[in-house]
Hints:
Layout: E1 4-5, H1 15-27, E2 35-38, H2 42-56, E3 62-65, H3 68-76, E4 90-95, E5 99-100, E6 106-107, H4 114-122, E7 124-132, E8 145-149, H5 154-167, E9 174-176, E10 192-196, H6 204-212, E11 217-220, E12 222-223, E13 229-234, E14 237-242
Parallel strand pairs: 2-3, 2-4, 4-7, 7-13
Antiparallel strand pairs: 1-14, 5-6, 6-12, 8-10, 8-11, 9-10, 13-14
Bound molecules: ribulose-5-phosphate (5RP).
Amino acid sequence: MSATETPSNDTTSSPAALKRLAALEALKEVRSGMKLGLGTGSTAIELVRALGEMVAGGLDVVGVPTSERTAELARSLSIPLSTLDETPELDIAIDGADEIGPDLALVKGGGGALLREKITASAARRFVVIADETKMVDCLGRFPLPIEVVPFGLTVTLRQIREVAGALGLTGNLEMRAGAGGGHYVTDGGHFIVDAHFGRIPRPGELGPALAAVPGVVEHGLFLGMADIAYVAGSTGVQIVRTSRARG
Ligand SMILES: O=C(CO)[C@H](O)[C@H](O)COP(=O)(O)O
C-alpha cells in the first residue's frame, strides 16, 4: 500500500502556510527544462506563487495550466505557459485534492476543474499531489463527489447517476453546483457540476467506471491509480505518502 516519512519539521500551521509548505516540498522535484502541469485551487495557488518566485530567480520551465484561473495567475507571475496540445507530454503535474484516501485514491473537482485536471495529470509522467493534512481520509466520501455533466438532458443524466450509484448501494442528494452569479456553475469546458452526497465510498473502483458509463457524464472526480506521491503538510511537517504503483 503506501509508505510514509516525514522529512521536514516546519511547525507553521495556518492553512495557507501548510499549503505553501506542501507546494515547496513538491517543487523540490522540479528542474530546469521541465514541462509542468499546474493544478487548480487554493493549494495550487500557493504552488504557482512559489513557482513564480523560482522562475523569477532563473528556473526555466513551461507550465500547462488546468484552468483559466491558474493560467491568469501564472501569466501575472511571468511563468511561461503552453497548452496541452502544444505540449502533450509533461514531466510532472502538481495539483491539490479534496480528499486523499487509501493508496492515493483521490476526490478532486471542488474547484470545478476536474476534467482539465484529469486530462493534464494523465499526460504527465508523474502526478504529484499537494495538500494539508485535513484532506487525508480512511475512506473517500466525506467530501461530496463532483461529477461534470453536459447541460443537455440533465434530468436523464441525474436519473442515470442515481441508478448506477444506487446499484452499488450509494444513495444521497445530487446537488447542482451553483454559479457565483446565480444559475448553475459552468466549467471552463461549458459543462455543469453535480456534487453527489453519497457518503462513504468504500469501492471507488466500482463507482468510477459506472459513472463514466453514463452518457451525459463528461468526467467524475475520482482520480484512481493516478497519483504517484502526495506531499501532505501538517503542524509537525510534511508527510510523504507514496503508492506502490509505478508510473513510468
Ligand atoms: O480539484 C480541485 C479543483 O478542481 C482542487 O485541487 C481541489 O478542490 C482542492 O482545492 P484546494 O486546494 O482549494 O483545497
